[in-house]
Design goal:
This protein is mainly beta. It folds into two domains: 40 residues; 119 residues, Immunoglobulin-like, CATH 2.60.40. The protein contains one helix and ten strands; from the N terminus they run E-E-H-E-E-E-E-E-E-E-E. A five-stranded mixed β-sheet has the order 4-10-9-6-7, with no helix packed on it. A three-stranded antiparallel β-sheet has the order 3-5-8, with no helix packed on it. The longest helix has 22 residues.
Length: 175
């Protein structure tokens, strides 16, 4: 047989070589999108959770509407989880607040980090279940206050946020 012919002889059988049809751009994009979705789902569902789903962080401000200048006290309670769970030992607190403009949170976020009280100890006595902080707001506006609890590895164990509205002061000298 002549090389390059449409039919070749191999293993005692004749077969016809077929050419792959070129893939359309639409199919290629579809395959890329499906592969991307599969990769995202794999990342979401394959990563084990840091702690059990039963851990909840409730947040309660001292008031939801205040007059400027306002001092706000926020208390958070951690519920659920086992006292022997190593992911709940020595939690660091990351408090943040930002101004909300027309239902869009401002990118400028004020953060404060509190290291866990047992950072210097080798074995903590018990899991901290209550966290408090106070904020001073000088200007009127809507603020989003958030607490993230992180374990020793820096992974977020629990988080929650609350919206607080600071109104214009009744006394015009504070404006």
């Amino acid at each position: 047989m002549v090389a390059g012919n449409a039919r070749d002889f191999e293993g005692g059988k004749m077969y016809r070589r077929t050419r792959r049809k070129p893939c359309s751009a639409r199919r290629r994009i579809g395959r890329i999108v499906i592969t991307g979705i599969q990769a995202c789902l794999l990342l979401i569902f394959a990563a084990p959770p840091v702690v059990a789903d039963s851990v909840k962080l409730s947040i309660s401000p001292s008031a939801s509407n205040l007059f400027a200048p306002a001092r706000l006290s926020v208390t958070c309670n951690l519920t659920g989880g086992s006292d022997a769970d190593p992911a709940l030992l020595c939690l660091a607190e990351e408090w943040s607040y930002s101004v909300v403009f027309e239902n869009v949170t401002n990118r400028e976020v004020n953060r404060s980090m509190r290291e866990s009280p047992c950072a210097s100890q080798t074995q903590p006595a018990a899991i901290a279940r209550e966290f408090t902080n106070s904020f001073l707001f000088m200007r009127p506006g809507r603020y989003m206050v958030r607490l993230e609890l992180r374990n020793r590895d820096g992974k977020v164990v629990a988080s929650n946020q609350v919206s607080v509205r600071v109104l214009r002061p009744a006394n015009p000298e504070y404006q």
